[in-house]
Every structure is written in C-alpha cells, then in structure tokens.
Amino acid sequence: MLTKLREGTLTAAREARAADTVGDATVRASGVRHFFGSLQAIERIDLEAAPAEVVGIVGPSGCGKTTLLELVSGLRAAEVGSISVAGRHDPAARLASCAYMPQRDLLLPWLSAVDNAALALRIAGVSRAEARRRAGAHFDRLGLAGFEGTRPHELSGGMRQRVAFLRTLMAGRPVLLLDEPFASLDAITRAEMQSWLAGVLRDDRHTVLLVTHDVEEALYLSDRVLVLTPRPARVADAIEIESPRSSDRPGAVTSPEFTELKQRALRSLTEAAR
C-alpha cells in the first residue's frame, strides 16, 4: 500500500510539472542500440523524460552517456531503435528542440560574458544590442550582475559555467541536455553550483537530461536517476526521487532517505560492473 501511495505521489508530481510546461517537451527513446564500427557502445536504452522532468544519467566512464545525449539531440543517428523529442523523430527536428551544454564551457575568449551568453541569439539573427539586452536581463538572477563586460579569463570556474548555462538557456529550446556541467570544478564550488542549478530548474520549466559521474549530484538535482552498466550500456536501475532540488542542499544530501538512495545507486553501479 505504501509503495502504491508513493508511486501515486510521484505520478501526480510529474503531471503537475507537465502542466506548467508550454508545449510538448517529452523525450522518448525505445530499444536504442549503437555501435562504433565493431565496438558496441549501447546495448539497449529505453527512457522517457516527461515535460519539465529532470532525468539524471549516471554510469562509469566510457559507458555511452555522452553518446546517448548525442543520439537524443540528433547529432548522431541512432542505428537501432526509436528516439523522439517533442513528438518528432527526424534528427534535424530533434536538434531544433534541444540545447546541448558540453562538459567544457567553450566560451569564446574574445567575447565578453554577455556576448558569450547571447551567442545563440546572435546566430539566430538577433541584433547585437537586442541580444545583449535579452541575455543581460538574466545576469542578476544567475548571480552574474556586474560581470556583463568581463572576458572569460577573468571569471572564476563557477561563473564561467553560469555563463555557459545561460548561453544554453538563451537558445530557447524546451529540452536541455547537460553533459557533466560541473565536472571541472572543485568540490566546494561544485556544491555551490548544484544549489544554484537546483534553483534555476525550480523556476525554469525545461525537460532536462543530466549526465554526470557524481551520484550525489544526480540524486539531488533529478526527479529520476537512471544507472547505466559499463559499456555496452543498458539501464541497471531507475531511481525515483520524491523531493528533488531542495533549497536546503546540505540538509537534503545528509538525510537518511537521501543516504539510502545513494547507497542503492552505488550498489547498482557495483553490481552492474561485475
């Protein structure tokens, strides 16, 4: 009975998130397999991310996590299986619905912070002044106020990641694909950035696939976490998070419930590697 009540609560939460999202931003992958020549990278992946849901993806290095994001976004063609984003299967159509944030911030050193953040708008043909105005309007909310004219080399690692994330948001796509966004940061800055991103994701209704090696990060930021096996990847476990993205990160990640989920995820990773 308790399990059924909990499942009902989680389902209701997903439906509430979907109601807050404009348009269909569902991501679906069914029976996806992928090879690089004779090397099988993905054995079989089935996943669904509902509108405004954050799905974390964890697994060992080289298991195909980044490849999966590339397949979802349409940057790679799926050899076997079906992938759709917002109901569309064509790779170009999927790419038009996705904004991809890679592991490195890839900020252009000759541009200011605000011009880097506005890059997607400029590529879309928006004038420089208007692109700066739109991107600059978010600097205060993202903790970047006063740094609009700063060059990337003058920013801290955390601030560079915020600019890169804002650039991803400014693309205006309903689906965000985040590939190890905080991997290059130290532990203290990484924890600060997780708290910051949790706040942004509470306010901005995007469907998100978050790839990370950090189990704690995935469990804190996600509504659901998929644990992948070593290459070739398949889903070893799917973990539902009842209260994701708490404003009290220290309290959340040290709670008995969170610790139990973390142990489960680590156990799944260990068992999958045997």
Short description:
This protein is α/β, with parallel strands linked by helices and 274 residues long. It has helices at residues 2-19, 65-73, 91-97, 113-117, 119-123, 128-136, 157-170, 187-203, 215-221, 249-253, 256-272; strands at residues 27-36, 39-49, 54-58, 80-85, 98-101, 175-179, 207-211, 224-228, 233-240.
Please specify the SSE layout and strand pairing.
Layout: H1 2-19, E1 27-36, E2 39-49, E3 54-58, H2 65-73, E4 80-85, H3 91-97, E5 98-101, H4 113-117, H5 119-123, H6 128-136, H7 157-170, E6 175-179, H8 187-203, E7 207-211, H9 215-221, E8 224-228, E9 233-240, H10 249-253, H11 256-272
Helix pairs in contact: 9-11
User: In one word, what is the shape?
Assistant: globular
- Count of discrete alpha- or pi-helical segments spanning 4 or more residues: 11
C-alpha termini separation: 34 Å
CATH class membership: Alpha Beta
Please estimate the helix content. Answer: 40-55%
Describe the main β-sheet briefly: 9 strands, mixed
Second CATH tier, the architecture: 3-Layer(aba) Sandwich
Strand proportion, as a percent range, falls in 15-25%
- What count of structural domains? 1
Query: How many DSSP-defined strands?
Result: 9
User: What is the radius of gyration?
Assistant: 19 Å
Order of helices and strands: HEEEHEHEHHHHEHEHEEHH
Unreliable stretches, pLDDT < 50, 5 or more residues? 1-22
- Strand-pairing-aware structural class: alpha/beta
CATH topology: Rossmann fold
Reading side by side through the largest sheet, how are the strands ordered?
Answer: 4-1-2-9-8-3-7-6-5
* Chain-averaged pLDDT: 88
The CATH fourth-level homologous superfamily: P-loop containing nucleotide triphosphate hydrolases
